Amino acid sequence: MSDLEIFRAEARAWLEANCPPSMRGDAPNAADEGAEVVWGGRRATYENPEAELWLDRMAGRGWTAPTWPKQYGGGELSADEARVLSQEIARIKARPPLFSFGLWMLGPVLLEYGNEAQKREHLPKIARGEIRWCQGYSEPGAGSDLASLRTRCEDKGDHFLINGQKIWTSYADQADWIFCLVRTDTTKKHEGISFILFDMASPGVEARPIKLISGSSPFCETFFTDVKVPKENLVGRLNGGWDIAKRLLQYERQNISSGGFGGGAGVELEEVAKRYAGEAAGRIADPDLRVRVAAHRMEARAFALTVRRLEEDAKAKKGPSPAVSIIKYEAAKLNQDRCELMIEAMGLRGLGWEGDGFAPAEISATRSWLRSKGNSIEGGTSEVNLNVVAKRVLGLLDHQ
Amino acid sequence: MTSALNEEQILLRDSARDWVREKSPVSAFRKLRDSGDVDGFERAAWREMCELGWSGILIPEEFGGSGLGYRTLGLVLEETGRTLTASPLLSNAIAATGLLLGGNAEQRQHWWPKLADGSAIGTLAADEGAHHAPERIALAAAKTGSGYTLNGEKRFVPEGGTADLIVVAARTGGSAGDEHGLTLFLVEGNASGLSRRPLKTVDSRGAADLAFRNVELPGSAVLGSAGDGFALLDGILDRARACLAAEMLGAATQSFETTLDYLKSRVQFGQAIGTFQALQHRAAKMYTDLELTRSCVEAALDGLDRNVNDVPALCSLAKARAGELWHLVSNEMVQMHGGIGMTDAHDAGLYLKRARVAEALYGNAAFHRDRYATLMGY
Ligand SMILES: Cc1cc2nc3c(=O)[nH]c(=O)nc-3n(C[C@H](O)[C@H](O)[C@H](O)COP(=O)(O)OP(=O)(O)OC[C@H]3O[C@@H](n4cnc5c(N)ncnc54)[C@H](O)[C@@H]3O)c2cc1C
Q1: pLDDT confidence of residue A30
Q2: Whole-model pTM?
Q3: What is the pLDDT of residues A129-172, one digit of tens each?
């Protein structure tokens, strides 16, 4: 048996023994309205005690952050081992023990740009789900043009002082800490931005939830008024935050594309189509709907194959292929198409808002459909994504 | 060819435009939604609409209406659609249409004046499932002596919770799937044995599920002739489709214009986002679609007034195009607004939500593509 096969056998046995029964089965989708997922943090509550147990066990093993070094709370697995682990997790349909911006976005960036003290302080708490992070990037005037951000950060000798406003800050009202882009030089655009971390419990921080069209309030307007931040919380160089910011966006988009937009969440489109729109001889009775469901399924398959192929490529070439830039765009499109087809297949039953006139799965289809409209906006819009592909990958430059 | 608007029509359209702007902006609908109201419309606003004569546009003058026809009604619906005005105007007109196509003198005399002055609200109850499928109607109307007894369910009936007159399509023969054996009935909203459950749908309008348990009707409640009501139902539905398409056209036009304003005013990278060609072409394509759809909607409404012979195909065309148009524009409305388009405080979501319900009502684009092909013989 190869080392990898030995690892597989061990991982399989450990998962079988340690993954509680209620943590198996169709994984909830982080973006699904009303899905029960574990985000950790100081204020975490667990409706299901097995969810906490599962998190503790996985964190104890370092498997919430499988590839991070052990000293920072990770499992120190090789890329191959990590892949085997995720296959074994998928095999028993074990749920992700932890959803976390810290794991997906901040951690990888800290490993690369953080100093030793920052890594020791923050990474283990991320891996154990003790601290929940939010992302302070967008501002009212700085969305797609993120580098025009204006939140001021002034050097006050022994500390920084932050004043300004962020917007669309997901879970700012529930997060413990924020990784934040601030302006430390007003005379330059990109070179005047710094990347800083601070505690959301600091005096002067206020998060006001904003309601989404889907009815929930996952994101906030976030205000900073004379927020004092210790100087050691600056990551990287002063005015050197833009590169870190972009790097983090890469991780964000990568994570989104590797399943962040769901894609299944239990109810299968074709089953719904048969149930609601009729079935004839094993087929979706409405030929128009049937063809469109099939076209969507085939595109989703092509996407899955592409994700696989790019992963293999990246391993062989020891670096990401330029084609990864299409992934977030396509993932958003696919999830939106799936949600549209789902509600169309359900007919008017897929357009319920609340109340006992509709089944919970129907209401959830409606709300997930509405929420999916954000997929092509969050983490950089599809237009910005396609601009990147056109310019950086295809070499199509703006005319002067 | 669509005829040009006459002076009376222009006057009515302009007064509708003014009224809507003043009395029924989108904020009025939002307020209604947030009030938790279950009727799905505001009575005071509806009364004003009736006073302006809109509830009588299809009804002949001697019955208290103005008899101006479908094109004229479409003009008003377009304006009310622009601001998502929540009212029984469309459903009421569909019930009036039922009487126009199938009502006898007595039925008209009883209902038209009430529908015209708004003292009664009318609607049509056809579908029984989540998808539009008129031939699948199963609600049973059993002959009992000189009358009928109704048993069964109707789903997602627009204004179903408030209607005083419900035109009910029921089965007196054949079985679900057959076109023959259908009969239409005029049922009063307070009929004994009829229970209604208001639904909380995504568009916050007044749909309800209706349950009929031994609802006894006299023979005089039959609309048209018993047993072969499918053609009558189809005729009513076609008028409903064309009128709904007009309302959708208005809403899509407003979705588009609001988005266009944003493209001109939102600045990123030091310039209005409307200067980016990626967005310019999409806006130009939406404009193209709007123009195409307008032609179809006007042709359908005009065709109804002039009784041209391919009315069914025109109505399917109008409804399918209006559905596809608003589907696209409502999605783009959210997308081109970025983060703010995802917020409940912005109007984009209200348009998106109403759009999908309107798309599904009386047949979505797929239904009408299929019907169009059938009507055209391929
Ligand atoms: C559900 C959700 C969660 C989010 N969570 C967070 C978070 O946690 N933290 C955070 O910081 N931000 C978050 N965001 C914000 C998100 O990153 C921004 O909304 C996004 O970057 C777009 O910015 P904007 O909203 O200002 O839109 P704008 O930039 O104003 O864009 C408006 C429209 O113009 C288009 N556009 C802009 N520039 C161009 C161009 N050059 N070419 C073509 N088209 C262009 C856009 O694509 C869009 O369609 C979230 C957003 C959503 C919807």
Answers
A1: 54
A2: 0.96
A3: 999 999 999 999 999 999 999 999 999 999 999 999 999 999 99
Domain A3-99: give its CATH architecture. Answer: Orthogonal Bundle (1.10)
For chain A, which residues make up each domain, given as ranges? 3-99, 133-240, 260-393
- Residue of chain A whose Cα is closest to the Cα of B368: A288
Res B32 pLDDT > 70: yes
Residue B269 CA to residue B71 CA, distance in Å, equals 46
Nearest CA to ligand 1 atom 50: A378
Single out the residue of B290, B287, B288, B262 nearest to residue B276, CA to CA.
B262
Report the alpha-carbon angle B353-B356-B362, nearest 5: 135
No. of H helices and E strands in chain B?
11, 11
Give how far the C-alpha of residue A240 lies from the chain's centroid of Cα atoms, to the nearest Å. 24
> Residue with the nearest Cα to atom 4 of ligand 1?
A378
Q: Kindly report the nearest CA distance between residue A347 and chain B, in angstroms.
A: 5
Give catalytic status of residue A130 as yes or no: no
Please give the pLDDT value at position A29: 56
Residue A37 DSSP SS3: coil
* Domains of chain B and any CATH numbers: 7-120 (1.10.540.10), 123-228 (2.40.110.10), 231-375 (1.20.140.10)
Q: Could you tell me the CA-to-CA distances from A289 to A299, B42, B127, B316, B365 in Å, in that order?
A: 15, 37, 19, 18, 11
Token reading at B109: 């005399």
CATH class of A133-240: mainly beta
Q: Whose CA is nearest to atom 49 of ligand 1?
A: B336
* Nearest-neighbour CA in chain A from B76: distance (Å): 26
Reported as type and span, the H/E element at residue A267 is: none
Q: How many residues does chain A have?
A: 400
Question: If you average pLDDT over residues B177-196, what whole number do you get?
Answer: 96
Task: Let me know if A157 is exposed, middle or buried by CB neighbors in 10 A (0-12, 13-18, 19+).
Answer: exposed
Query: Is A376 close to ligand 1, i.e. is its CB under 6 Å away?
Result: no
Mention the CATH class of domain A260-393: mainly alpha
Return the HEC string of B178-242: CCCCEEEEEEECCCCCEEEEECEECCCCCCEEEEEEEEEECHHHEECCCCECHHHHHHHHHHHHH
- Token pair recorded at residue B328: 């696209």
- Pick from A96, A94, A114, A115: which is nearest to A106 by CA? A114
Residue B8's identity, in one-letter code, is E
Cβ of A380 less than 6 Å from ligand 1:
yes
Average confidence score pLDDT of chain B? 97
Percent of chain B with pLDDT over 70: 99
Task: For B127, name the nearest residue in chain A, comparing CA atoms only.
Answer: A348
